[in-house]
Amino acid sequence: MKILALDTATEACSAALLxxxxxxDRFVVAPRRxxxxxxxxxxxxxxxxxxxxxxxxxxAFGRGPxxxxxxxLRPVWSRxxx
Length: 82
Description:
Blueprint: E1 2-7, E2 12-19, E3 22-29, H1 34-49, E4 58-61, H2 68-81
Parallel strand pairs: 1-4
Antiparallel strand pairs: 1-2, 2-3
């Protein structure tokens, strides 16, 4: 199973990839920089693991509460992924 999880609801920005029972993650506390950090985190996780977006089984994201930008980023990116 391949699951990509994202969370940008707080001052922390994080992405994690579950791949065959192993978890790889990226995490940084960076208030107001989520929009510039989350996509490079995703790219790094996927390229390090050799997984492509279309190979993912599921995409999970925290739904808040949180800052407006953080809340908007997750569902927008999730819809773009489809």
